[in-house]
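so my prof wants the structure for this chain in the tokens format not the other one, which i didnt know existed until like an hour ago. anyway here's the sequence
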Amino acid sequence: MVLPTLCQTAFMVLRQIEPILVMEQLGSTLFDTALQMVVRDRSANATYPDISREDSQQKAMSNFYMTYRLIVLVTPILPALLLARLGDRGWRRAPIVVPLSGYLLSRLALLLVVVFRLPLEVMFGAAAVFGLSGGFCAYWPGVMALASIGSTATDRSKVMMRVELLYGIAGLVGSLVSGHLFQLYSSSLDHGTILLIVSTLLHLLSLIHSIVMLQVKQVPNREPEENRHLLFHTSRNDAVEVPAGINLLNVALLFAAAVLYDVAVGGAIEILGVFVLKQPLSWSATQVGYGNAAGFTIFLTSFLGVIVLRRYVSDVMLVLIGMVSFATGIYFMSFVTATYMFYLARSLNLFALIPMPTIRSLLSQQVPASSCGTTLTCLQLALKFAGLAYIPAFTKIYQRTLDWFPGFVFTLSSIFTVLGMIPISIVGCRSPQRRQYERIPVD
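here's what i got, hopefully its the right format
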């Protein structure tokens, strides 16, 4: 009796989104380390007039990443909208399967670049293919939509943070081993070849799994009452305040907060990968993997923070706590000159990943389940459009401040985080008690 029950439980787990998420994230973290080191090696001989060789390398690397990420930002816009629409019409696998195909092809492209010594510019084409498949812009809202429709409104932020936790643990494990795998080579295999083979196989397995095994919960077209709950934290024994309609001002404020925070985080992370490869840090592939692992550790601490803090504070306050955590850590990063200082700065970011999933949770509670995927994708697209501005802006600012203050972009990032706290604070001040609501108990 025990063995059949265990087998049945294992089969049910395999039919969920989590195994796909773990395999995809493991493969992606291996790919990220490989791409970072390949770009560094290919930029070693870059020269620009009137600047040093190291600054030339930094400029070549940051220019590559700027172009690469802009392509990744622009190309998925229309495909992501189409896939979100398909998902809301009942094809919930589409926003998962199609982007995973793009993931697989882009990882395979870097493997071919390394094996056949192709020009690094091939990765621009790979980025376009990845974007046309919907990329992360379609994949992540698809994952969040599946997690959202399978949970109640009161547990939704917790469920979404659990997804983020698995994502972070997989990234942590992948990052820890990525640097060591990159170092494996032989007379017939260059550095990074084995790493990229493993990454490509993981993406292939996740794609096959999503096609064959993934089970999707069917959602009725009628909007459940629980999906109409708005914004403020409640316990299971509290009454929930339900507005007569969607509060568009709160939606706009949440979008504004998400965009400002994404500018802060995205702008800093855009530069951080290049920053650690220059003097005085000058990290190796193994150190890069450990540094990425430190970033993924924040997924664990943020999840634990949600579990503990949500018992005592509202979701709005959770977002503010996370923003303060990131602002202090990234400001300290401005003055990092040694590896131990990098990890100290990262340790201040303990709750930095709480804001975005919590904001997504708040947004998903204000729309019908049948429109959840579209709403989350619209948010993701808003973040993409913001990236079209902040990626080149942060890149050019970094290049122009290399000589006198390389960490200036991190100070700028902390300022944007403080600005992002303003709309969230307004949401918190707009207490629901000031409006007339129908009060209903939560079962």
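also thought this was worth mentioning. Strands lie at 239-242, 438-441.
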